[in-house]
Design a protein that fits this description.
437 residues; alpha+beta; Uridine Diphospho-n-acetylenolpyruvylglucosamine Reductase, domain 2; Uridine Diphospho-n-acetylenolpyruvylglucosamine Reductase, domain 3; Vanillyl-alcohol Oxidase, Chain A, domain 3; 3 domains; 8-stranded antiparallel beta sheet; 13 helices; globular
């Protein structure tokens, strides 16, 4: 299906595009034809998923490939617990697709609206000091290259390319299939609890090491942290999920409905933000439950925001976080969104933010109707001073020269891009900035 391009906007309203044409392929052959047709017309072509990246990584000024029809299971390797999914499969659909086989993804982020291809291509990571991000769960891929041919990368073919293709920023080709290394289904015992920020910071490294999945949120203008601790249990462990009414109150009424109102009020009258933040801390958290892994990992986020996130060497978390707190106080900003801190194990993916090092992540947000520039740029300088690498799908200002210094395999990735896409069919302004021309 092909149609003229209209205006496209991402979820956070931080990126827009008006593609010349939009194509909705229903299969791999249709993707190949679209790439070949774009080449004949001299148009760049980009795949777009759910639009949940805050950077311009999915902006398609030429041909926009909408992968909404490229969904579902291709095949299952029961013996090795591997499942091959079509690239446009949304993350929220994956648990249902894996359930008949008694499988689950080993880790997830806290939002599940993205497509599987979009999530791995931008470095979505979740949390867990012993667990790696989503792209590290990829053990095979099929992509359409710039000449419209298929490239298979797995443990039998082109294996050496997997560390680049698994997290490829959409720069190497159009992903059409991804093979995920799954694990037996499991449940999570979740404990969400508020507590003094100062006390948590004293033991945060230990908390992250002891838990399977640990993260915390800090609302600026308060001295309280909301910690979230998840421990893995077998699939047949007794479940004690949140009552439907209680979950609705916590995650819809308070976290989305009331919070949307308070963000709007805070945007109009910044002076009320500290009081609102203190109220939010009192109303959220302090709950314990056990449920299927995906129901604990993910939450519905209805309040639009914009986000910047940096990965730091885990040992640099505390000084960077302390500098961030001091910055907010010194500048007198009124920040209504919490700061989020998460963790990930080291991996070997060339452009992974956790490449070669155990990592801690600091994410900052602003309500989508507020200009984040001054806040984000000041925070970015702190992150860079502490060895930070920016999340590819979130807002940052770095270019290829700055990123090359932070990724030991950066030039290897660029050389592979030169080989697979010499004419830059898959390029856009964002990729030109972060990878060079």
């Amino acid at each position: 299906m092909t149609r003229p391009g209209g205006q496209w906007r991402n979820w956070g309203r931080s990126a827009t595009a008006r593609p010349q044409r939009v194509e909705v392929p229903t299969g791999t052959d249709a993707v190949r034809r679209a790439v070949q047709a774009a080449a004949r017309r001299g148009l760049p072509i980009k795949a777009v998923g759910a639009g949940h990246s805050f950077s311009g990584i999915a902006v398609a000024p030429g041909v926009q490939l909408d992968l909404r029809e490229l969904t579902g299971v291709v095949r299952v390797d029961r013996e090795r617990s591997r499942v091959t999914l079509r690239a446009g499969t949304p993350l929220h659909a994956v648990p249902g697709l894996l359930a008949p086989y008694g499988l689950a993804m080993t880790n997830l982020g806290d939002i599940d609206r993205q497509t599987i291809a979009g999530a791995v291509s931008t470095g979505t990571h979740g949390t867990g000091a012993r667990y790696r991000g989503l792209a590290a769960q990829v053990v095979g891929a099929v992509l359409v290259t710039a000449d419209g041919e298929l490239l298979t990368v797995d443990d039998e073919k082109n294996t050496e390319l997997l560390p680049a293709v698994a997290l490829g920023l959409g720069a190497l080709g159009i992903l059409v299939e991804l093979t995920i290394q799954c694990v037996p289904a499991f449940v999570l015992h979740a404990v969400d609890s508020p507590g003094p920020l100062a006390a948590l910071l004293q033991i945060v490294t230990r908390r992250a090491a002891e838990a399977d999945h640990f993260e915390f949120y800090w609302f600026p203008h308060t001295d309280v942290a909301l910690s979230k601790t998840n421990m893995r249990l077998p699939a047949d462990a007794p479940r004690h999920p949140l009552p439907t009414a209680g979950r609705w109150v916590d995650e819809e009424l308070l976290s989305n409905g009331v919070y949307a109102l308070t963000c709007a009020v805070g945007s109009a009258v910044p002076a009320v933000v500290p009081s609102v933040s203190r109220l939010a801390v009192r109303l959220t958290g302090d709950r314990e439950y056990t449920d299927f892994s995906h129901r604990v990992f993910t939450q519905h986020r209805g309040v639009r925001f914009r986000e910047m996130e940096y990965a730091l060497p885990a040992d640099n978390l505390r000084p960077a976080f302390d500098a961030l707190r001091a910055l907010i106080e010194e500048r007198g900003w009124r920040i209504s969104f919490p700061v989020e801190v998460r963790f990930a194990a080291a991996d070997d993916l060339w452009l992974s933010t956790a490449y070669g090092r155990a990592s801690a992540y600091i994410a900052v947000h602003r309500y989508w109707r507020e200009n984040p520039t001054e806040y984000f740029q000041a925070v970015e300088q702190i992150m860079l001073a502490h060895g930070g690498r920016p999340h590819w799908g979130k807002m940052h200002t770095l270019d290829a020269a700055a990123l090359r210094e932070r990724y030991p395999r950066f030039d290897d990735f660029v050389r592979l891009r030169d080989r697979l896409d010499p004419d830059r069919r898959f390029e856009n302004a964002y990729l030109r900035r972060v990878l060079g021309g």
